[in-house]
Input
Amino acid sequence: MKPTVLEVFASFLRLGLTAFGGPAMAAYIRELAVVREKWLSEDSFKSGVALCQSIPGATAMQVAAYVGLRVRGVLGALAAYVGFGLPAFLLMLALSALYDHVRDLPRSVSLFRGLQVVVVAIVANATVTFGRTSLMAWQDVLLTFIAALLLGRGTSPILAICACAVLAVAFFRSESASAAHTPDRPNAHTPLLWPALALSVLAALSLLALFAVDRKLFDLAALMMKVDLFAFGGGFASLPLMLHEVVEVRGWLDPKTFMDGIALGQATPGPIVITATFVGYRVHSLAGATVATVGVFFPSFVLVLVTVPYFDRLQRSPLFQKAVRGALTSFVGLLLVVTLRFAHAAPWSPISIPLAALALLALQLKVDILWVVLAGGLVSVLML
Output
């Protein structure tokens, strides 16, 4: 018996309260949808994960939407998506509101000084993880170098991603696509393009309204939507894009404040792109936090609706496979540059250097990122 939309929302709301670990949360979603509730078959769930890993956006959030779509159609997808992300938004909103009141207190200064070097370790670990899975040939290494060089010379990371995707089409030979599982559709006779189109029109009208009412909110919404549309490979892929636009281009935040936002995001459930809530709050208080959060998650949701009916075709397209490989490879170079920039901005000391090294070692040993952040914060308060 399939659940109601409200039951889907409640199930993912409970899951979202403990959604630490980013993409690793896909395993907990599988436990809910496949093992415990038996809403999906194993093959269907694997197809959904493969789809979400092939399109830009926060992977765990998109897997939640896919499960909701499978069991209760578009409304189920929306219920799962919102339920899964709502706890992270509310907690990050509260932390963002408290940030100005506590950031200058002596213990808070020590806390954030330590967490900034932990963030360097977190991004360095993401770089190594991306590199292990993406660098499989000399062409991948070359694309990584090109992306790093472009971002290092001030080029937009979006241009670097597009350049690597185009070059990958020329660099890599076509390989026969492995047979993909066919995603079970919520209703084979119900097209998903119409809801996606309706949501896109609603988004366009909302952007026009923001443009007329408040240009800064419009700029914030458009920026976050752009970040989400080019974040191939999950939430960490959004960091080079957000850093470039928020810190370097617009100057809304300085590098250390942006790193504080990332640290707070890692202490909350949900994907790392919840940092957008922090950025939005710093730019335009509650309205900014809301607009930034909706903006950074909206395209991901629409992309799930659009791609589900055509996933098999995309999986078998050599051009699609090579372009995605180039985009994913580019993020190794982009994250490397971000690591170096964060390292340059971090407050290093005889204590913070081993703290960062131990944090990186713990992450490499697969210690949960929440415990790394909490332990790093405790050491910072006691020793920095």
Summary: The longest helix spans residues 59-102. The chain has a mean pLDDT of 85.
